């Protein structure tokens, strides 16, 4: 059986949907950190449900990733680049899981409810504790910066494959079977 040349339609849909959501989250988070106005509360109310949606989608995405065949990396790709590609994907998936869980934990430690809507409230996953909140807030911020950096490297690598190497790596996520 030949290896696929493209990711499945569902894998591509999840990839691009989550890419948009994560980029939005990074900008919303930056806006929250930079703001002390009333806008901060509005951004926070957007940030929470979007984070939970990302958490749920990354779980679906992991199931899809482990139950479908993926295109192989080019055979002539240098070993260090293949290792970097695999490591960066593990890091991306880990951050997509960890950041929403950290955010949920942080809000729980603050003693605040995680409201997804006016009537849908998630249970607290940690008891209220100011020191834990401070630690989790700092970790959430640092890991968000790491996610931003990792997304930029991922984008640069994709463009390198599409524009410099001109191999099928970028195409495998852009298009279906041709």
Automatic annotation (TrEMBL):
The keyword Transmembrane applies. One of its GO terms (cellular component) is plasma membrane. It is found in: Cell membrane. One of its GO terms (biological process) is respiratory electron transport chain. It is a multi-pass membrane protein. The keyword Electron transport applies. It comes from the Bacteria. Belongs to the cytochrome b561 family. This is Cytochrome b. It comes from Pseudomonas marvdashtae.
């Amino acid at each position: 059986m030949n290896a696929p040349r493209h990711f499945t339609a569902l894998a591509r849909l999840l990839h691009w949907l989550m890419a948009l959501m994560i980029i939005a989250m990074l900008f919303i988070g930056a806006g929250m950190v930079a703001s002390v106005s009333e806008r901060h509360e509005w951004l926070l109310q957007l940030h929470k449900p979007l984070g939970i949606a990302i958490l749920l989608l990354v779980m679906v995405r992991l199931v899809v990733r482990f139950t479908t065949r993926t295109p192989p990396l080019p055979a002539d790709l240098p070993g260090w680049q293949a290792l970097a590609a695999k490591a960066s994907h593990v890091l991306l998936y880990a951050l997509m899981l960890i950041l929403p869980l950290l955010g949920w934990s942080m809000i729980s430690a603050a003693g605040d409810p995680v409201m997804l809507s006016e009537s849908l409230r998630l249970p607290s996953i940690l008891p209220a504790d100011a020191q834990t909140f401070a630690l989790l807030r700092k970790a959430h911020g640092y890991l968000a910066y790491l996610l931003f950096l990792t997304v930029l490297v991922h984008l640069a690598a994709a463009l390198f494959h599409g524009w410099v190497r001109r191999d099928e790596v970028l195409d495998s996520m852009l298009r279906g079977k041709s």
